[in-house]
Amino acid sequence: MAVSQSSVYAYLKGFKKEFDSHFKNGLIIISEERQSALNASDVARFLGINTFVLPDFRAKFGEDLRSFQEELSEIFVVLREFYSCKSPKILFSPLSTLLYPLPNAESLQSIELKVGSTLSLKDFKETLFYLGYEFVDLVELSGEVSIRGEIIDVFSSQPYRIILFGDEIESIRTFDVQSQLCSKEELETLAIPPAFFNLNAESHTILQNIILEQQTSFLDIEKSSSLASFGFWYLDKINAAQDFLQTYPFIVLPNVKEFAKEILEFQEYNEQSVQRILKSKEIPKSEEYQDFDYHFNTLKNFLEFHKNKQITIIAKTESQVRQAGITLADTHFKILLNLDISVNILGKDELILSLNSPQKQKKHLKAKIFLDELNIGDYVVHCDYGVAIFNGIVQANIFGATRDFIELRYLGEDKLLLPIENLERIDRYVADSGGIPLLDRLGKGSFAKLKEKVREKLFIIANAIIALAAKRELLDGVVFDTAKEEILIFQNQSGFHYTEDQTQAITEIFKDLSSGRVMDRLLSGDVGFGKTEVAMNAMFAAFLSGYQSAIIAPTTLLTYQHFNTLQERFAPFGLKLARLDRYVSAKDKKNILASLKKGDLNAVVGTHALFNVEFKNLALIIIDEEHKFGVKQKEKIKELSQNIHLLSMSATPIPRTLNMALSRIKGLSELKTPPSERQATRTFVKAYDEVLLKEVILREIRRGGQIFYIHNNIATMAQKKEELLSILPQLNLAILHSQIPSSQAEDIVLDFAKGAYHLLLCTSIVESGIHLPNANTILVDGADCFGIADLHQLRGRVGRSNKEGFCYLLVEDFESITADAKKRLLALEKNSFLGSGGALAYHDLEIRGGGNLVGEAQSGHIKNIGYSLYLRLLEEAIFTLSGDVQQKQNPIDVKLSVTAFLNPELIESERLRLEIYRRLSKSEDENAVFLIEGEIEERFGRLDVYTRQFLDLIRIKIIARNCGISSILNYQQNISFVDLKGEKLMIKAASKDEDDLLTAVFTHLESLKSKQLQNKSKES
User: Fold this and answer.
1) Bridge partners of residue 27, in order along the sequence
2) Residue 862: CB partners within 8 Å, gap ≥ 6?
3) Which of 348, 350, 346 is CA-nearest to residue 294?
4) Dihedral Cα 244, 247, 250, 252, nearest 10 deg
5) Dihedrals φ, ψ of 232, to 5°?
6) For residue 496, which phi and psi values (nearest 5 degrees)?
7) Which of 130, 321, 569, 796 has the greatest CB tally within 10 Å of its CB?
8) What is the DSSP letter of 885?
């Protein structure tokens, strides 16, 4: 229920003159939830009062607050501003946020730094520790700090980098978390607010002890994080909190008391606070003002009708006013510009109308920097020697020079030392989930044979892909008119703003459709990222140009969902649509077939039932989740779409490199941005408990949603059903697992999508392509038995619409789970958003997505050599066959007796060193190396000689590769170069000093490079 803005307006207007005397410290207005608070705050802002809005904070006393970090930090920011504001002010807050004491002004006090002042690093570290900052290698999230010698990175409201000179502050600048590079602009001062609370040694110890006495929760693996998890609950014990309901005057909006009564039943909140709300004063309903809605199309008539009133128009920009057909000079209206509020109130003598849409809660989270993280003990694949275990970085002295190597462990404890500059030769081993790969044995040559076998198979596949593409290239395609006005109207009716990716994809598709060639494009993007909307644009263009289009999906559920979406969007435009699947009666089917043949229907959605249908003028086929069709069905699709525009949609992403190889053959468009309404899914790790189950399930049903319950054991499924029904007898639930026949399983999921059940009890087969926006809570039983990527994917099944998702990872017994599983669960709880865990799962998915493109017949080979190498070979095959020889990179061997490595004294953390090694090994030109060099200098300080020499070696490798050299070796001051034909050339350095060796090699390579350029210019 939306809050009544008119009542708030009438109430505040009555007080406007005496507001200061009545509420000199401020007033609190309490709403049921955040959206009402935002709407009401717009009214106060319109009246010129300072407004502050707290987020919805629904934790229960004593709960671990790690998964509420975002709300907490927002509460602290808002309170800090509220306390420091001295003019008339109102704090708007959802009820649940005020039921506990909140931090007082002293506990949120910031510390000030100034350029030129002195700073004792030891004291500063201690202060930051008491302010609640977490010390890490790499600052990526709010509340983290990293100190590297004289460089301090601290992420408070945004990331700042402080550079010291001795103990004087030399400069303060912001930096970008993604690139870790600084902005140019220097700041004079910096206020660092507490990441948690402003404590000192004494209050910190007291709080720590209280927590240890009170809390028994298992997840306190590290003592240091217990403050972040539980400190908030015990602030009143160190006089750092205040109860807002006692210290400030407050009034409640309508509906709040109803909500308070509901809360009382659950008995989780402080009863006194709730009683105080029930006895409080409510904002009365206004007699003289009312809220109204208007339609943009009828706005002119609406204003004309009320022209005798005093009309105020609110807008963010001038163009909005012009778009509404109002001239800025018009004296009938009082126009307020640059105001981003939405207030629509109608009174006897006045009308306030806003051209802005209401403010939405914004949640935009950047993913953490994605490291191709290699952890010790991970399986990797070396492209010449096969599957091994990664053992970390080791230093060794070879030919009198010290270097870093990657140690790989093979079968029978054989070890291989891989020079770190050749890091690109290994990849993480990824195959279909489960199953442990077999380690290869060094020196048997069996891996090389296996690789050859796979390569032959791949040539056949690549050949087929290319032949098909070449054949399509020769065909003329139907030309669609994509510039029609109606398309813009259709896009505006969608009810939301397209993301940049969507706009880009539509542009690319329209270019194909109007080019006269046959389109063959793949559109990939996660479920709920708006692929269907993009596809509908193409269908609409076909309809406007007088052609038919068809969507083919692998399951009835998908056809049902597509049909509903299309029906709703296309109905106003007169596009005739039908659906064909096994739920359509024989009689209807006959009519539909006849209409398609006659051309009475413009579009059809269906399963493989569409394969043998006759159309009058079909010009566009859209295929959803193509990789789920069988081999024979795929052949059918190929026959069907020989000279017809084809758009395939897939929910699994595709790796960038394969993308490049394939882009010569088919178009690729990707949707990577989630819709703006999307909220992060909140994750909790809990012990299995019936009271918890009851509360979680009821909470979801109360907000009209549905629940997934993952129980990964078919044998005990029926028993689990009985257990759930004994807790909640009136629960409607269905069971789903792999032994249920597929048609029956489809019926169950379809009924669930239509809302027939509250809860779906299933094994982990909640399929990836299914979009069930109404299921927003997922409970995972025995969560410690799943891998992190699997858990991440399961969690991704909820929170896909604009409702917040909840994921509960349940564990039978905390004592008995392994330390590893604990770490995994903790990481997920902390990292609720699409962060690095997501990036990792995404990476695995991406690699599998690449495998899917080629078909399933190869999964045996994939298991033997891992997806990454498999894709590498596939890329090579495609490039070779499509005549693009340039792309194949020849391996190069550089063995110079030069001590070179990234110095651990400069870059302490092994994880960061490995990441930089990895990026350097993937660099394709010298500029990339120089960029990384600048970045190292900025992030870690001046380069020492070993680090600089390592960067030189990488540059030598790149130049040599481009000049067609296959190896560079030296013995003392004699250096030999061997080119790809095997011809050898010797040169002599001035001495065997490392500097002289490098200078000689660079001089020789530069001369080769300039020769190459001269030859090229002669040719051209």
Assistant:
1) 90
2) 431, 432, 851, 870
3) 346
4) 30
5) -55, -40
6) -150, 165
7) 796
8) G
647 beta partners: 521, 622
The pLDDT confidence band at residue 797, using thresholds 50, 70 and 90, is confident
Reported as a pLDDT band with limits 50, 70 and 90, residue 856 is very low
State the DSSP code for 315: -
HSE at residue 674, side-chain half, CA atoms within 13 A, is: 19
What single DSSP character describes residue 161? Answer: E
Distance, in Å, from the CA atom of 858 to the CA atom of 852, rounded to the nearest integer, reads 10
| Predicted local distance difference test score (pLDDT) of residue 676 | 65
DSSP class of residue 476?
B
List the structure tokens of 145: 């700090």
Helix segments in 495-574, DSSP class H: 500-513, 531-544, 556-570
Tokens read off for 851? 């495998």
Using H for helix, E for strand and C for coil, what is the string for 901-938? CCCCCCCCCHHHHHHHHHHHHCCCCHHHHHHHHHHHHH
Residue 761 has pLDDT above 80, yes or no: yes
Q: Within 10 A of 530 (CB to CB), how many other CB atoms are there?
A: 21
Residue tagged 């030919």 (tokens): 399
Sequence-separated (6 or more) residues with CB below 8 Å from residue 43: 5, 8, 9, 12, 343, 345
**If you average pLDDT over residues 614-640, what whole number do you get?**
79
Q: What is the mean pLDDT of residues 11-23?
A: 78
Q: What is the pLDDT of residue 982?
A: 87
577-589: pLDDT as tens digits: 999 988 888 899 9
Q: How many CB atoms lie within 10 A of CB 309?
A: 16
pLDDT, one tens digit per residue, over 736-754 is: 887 888 778 778 888 888 8
Q: State phi, psi for 15 to the nearest 5 degrees.
A: -100, -5
Global pTM value: 0.59
CA atoms of 380 and 391, how far apart (whole Å): 10
Q: Which two tokens stand for residue 751?
A: 């009924």
- Would you place residue 658 in the very low, low, confident or very high pLDDT band (cuts 50, 70, 90)? low
One-letter amino acid at 617 equals N
Contact 917, 911 (CB under 8 A): no
Farthest-apart Cα atoms in the chain, separation: 98
Q: For residue range 283-294, what is the model confidence (pLDDT) as tens digits?
A: 888 888 988 888
Measured distance CA(449)–CA(445) in Å, rounded = 7
Cα–Cα–Cα angle for 207, 212, 217, nearest 5°?
Answer: 125
What's the whole-number average pLDDT of the chain? Answer: 82
**What percent of the chain shows pLDDT beyond 90?**
21
Tokens representing 513?
Answer: 């459709």
* Among 675, 826, 667, 704, residue whose Cα is nearest residue 217: 826
The counts of H helices and E strands in the chain are: 32, 40
Contact, 58 vs 96, CB < 8 A?
yes
- Which residue is it, tokens 């999230």? 141
540 pLDDT above the threshold of 50: yes
Distance CA 571, CA 450 (A): 56
Sign (positive or negative) of CA dihedral 760, 765, 771, 773: positive
> Strands, E, within 447-539: which ranges?
520-525
**Average of per-residue pLDDT across 901-921:** 84
CA distances to 9, 59, 100, 384, 475 from 962, rounded to whole Å, are 72, 59, 66, 22, 38
Nearest 10 degrees: Cα torsion 915, 918, 922, 923: 60
pLDDT at 677: 63
Q: Minimum mean pLDDT among 205-219, 352-366, 784-798, 827-841: which range?
A: 827-841
Region 394-409: what's the mean pLDDT? 87
**Measured between alpha carbons, how far is 974 from 927 in angstroms, rounded to an integer?**
29
Q: Which residues, including other chains, have CB under 8 Å from residue 325's CB and lie 6 or more apart?
A: 299, 300
For 165, the 3-state DSSP assignment is strand
Structural contact between residues 808 and 686, judged by C-beta atoms closer than 8 angstroms: yes
Which residue, 255, 256, 260, 254, is CA-closest to 273? Answer: 260
Tokens matching residue 639: 């026959």
